[in-house]
Amino acid sequence: MLKKVLATVGVTALAHAASANMISGSLENTDPTWDGCGSGAATGCFYDVVEFTVDADGLYTFDAFYPGDTGLDENLDGVLEIYEGSFDPLAPGGIAFDDDGPGGSNTSQILDVDLDAGVTYFAVISSFSNAPTSFGQATGDWELSASGAGNVTFVPVPAAVWMMLSALGALGFTRRRRA
Question: CA separation (Å) from 146 to 63, 66, 108?
Answer without folding.
Answer: 6, 15, 12
